[in-house]
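Example 3.
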Amino acid sequence: MTTELVPGNTLVTASPDEGRALAIKLARLTIKAIQPDGEVRQRLRPSYAENADSLTAAAQVVAIEFATIAAANNYWRSTTKSSS
Amino acid sequence: MTTELVPGNTLVTASPDEGRALAIKLARLTIKAIQPDGEVRQRLRPSYAENADSLTAAAQVVAIEFATIAAANNYWRSTTKSSS
Amino acid sequence: MTTELVPGNTLVTASPDEGRALAIKLARLTIKAIQPDGEVRQRLRPSYAENADSLTAAAQVVAIEFATIAAANNYWRSTTKSSS
Amino acid sequence: MTTELVPGNTLVTASPDEGRALAIKLARLTIKAIQPDGEVRQRLRPSYAENADSLTAAAQVVAIEFATIAAANNYWRSTTKSSS
Amino acid sequence: MTTELVPGNTLVTASPDEGRALAIKLARLTIKAIQPDGEVRQRLRPSYAENADSLTAAAQVVAIEFATIAAANNYWRSTTKSSS
Amino acid sequence: MTTELVPGNTLVTASPDEGRALAIKLARLTIKAIQPDGEVRQRLRPSYAENADSLTAAAQVVAIEFATIAAANNYWRSTTKSSS
C-alpha cells in the first residue's frame, strides 16, 4: 500500500507549472501500476504517441488529474501573480 | 448491500499514495462487481494491458476515483509536507 | 416523473460501501430507463461483460455517480473510521 | 436564447428521483438541439438502444448532468430521509 | 488573446435555459477555434449529426460546460422557482 | 520540473475569454509534453482536425481544463457584467 503512486507523497506544489507536471506524472504512474512491464509500455508508446485520438485521451486524463491538484493547492491563488 | 466495494469501508487514507492505491482498488472492485467471474477477468487482462488506449481509459477512471478520495481527505493538506 | 430512478429516493447512505452499491445501481437504472426492454438488456450483457473496454467504460460511469453520492454524504467523514 | 433546454427553466427538483429524470431529459434536449430533425433521431434510436457501449456512453452523460442537478439541490439533504 | 470564445465574455446568465444555450455555444466555439475553416466544419456536420455516438459525445461536452456555468451562477437558486 | 506547461505560470486570467484561451493552450501544451516532436504533431493535425469525433474529444478536454480555470478565477463573478 506504499507503492510510489504520488511523487513525494503530496499534492502540494509550488506553482501551476509544477502542478501540471505532477498531473502528467500521476497519469504515467497509474499506467505503470496497471502495466508494470516497462518493455510492454515502451512497445506501446510509438503507436500511441503518433495517434491524435490517443494523445487527446491522454490529455483528458491529465486534465482530470490537474483539476484535483489545482483544488488541493487552492489554485495557487496566493502564490501566483495575476496576468493581464 | 454490504458487498465489499470499498476496502475498509472508508475513503479516509493516511496519505496521497494510499489514496491513489485506493482509487485503483475501487476501480478494480467495480469491474469485479460487474463481471464477478474471475476467469473471464483474467482472460480479458492481456489484450487490455497491452493496449495503450485501454490503459489510458483505465487511468481516466482512476483519476476520477482519486478526485473523490482526495476531496474526502481534504487533499491531505494538514498531513503532507509542501514540496518546493 | 416519479419512475424509480434512485432506490429509496435518497442519495444518503450509511457507509461508503453502500454508497458504492448505490452508484452501480444508479448506472443500471439509467440504462433501464433508456432501454426498458429487459430482453434486449440481457442479450447485450455477454458481449459487454466480456469486453475489457466496455467494463472500463461502465466503471467510469460508476466513478462519476459515486463522486456525487460521496459529496451528498460529506464523504462519510463522521461515520467512518480513519484507516492507518 | 430562450429555446426550451431546461424543462421549467429550473434545476430545482423535489427529490433525487425527479432530479434523475431531469438529468435524462437534459441530455435528450441537448441531442434535440444539435439534431432538431425528429425523424433522424428516431432512425438512430434502434442501433443505439441495442448497443451496450452506446448505452454506457449515454449513462455517462446522465451521470454528469445529475452531478450538477444534485449540487443545485444541495443533494436533497434536508428533504430526504436517511437510509440505513 | 481576446478571440471570442465566450459570448459576451461572461458566464453569468439570467436562467438555466440561457445557461444551457451558453454551454452549447461554448462547445461550438471551441470546435471553431480548433478548426477555423467553416467549410470543413459544414462538411463534417452531416455524418456527425446522424451518428448516435457522435451526438452522445457532443452531449457530454455540453454537460461538462454546463456544470461550470451552473456553478458560476450558483445554480440560479435565487432567480428560479422550485418545481414540484 | 519547470517546463512551460502553464503560460505565465498562473491560472488567473482577466476574463472568461482569456480563461477559455488558456484552457485551449493547456490542452495543447499537454499534447506537446507527451509528443515533443513538432513534425509528428503537424502530421497528425489534418486527419484530426477533419474528423468530427476527434474535434469533439478535443472540445471535451478543453471543457475540463476550463472548469478548473473558471473555479480558480471564482468564475470571474466580480469582474464581469451580467448578461440579460
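The first helix of chain E runs from residue 16 to 34. Confidence is low (pLDDT under 50) at residues 80-84 of chain E.
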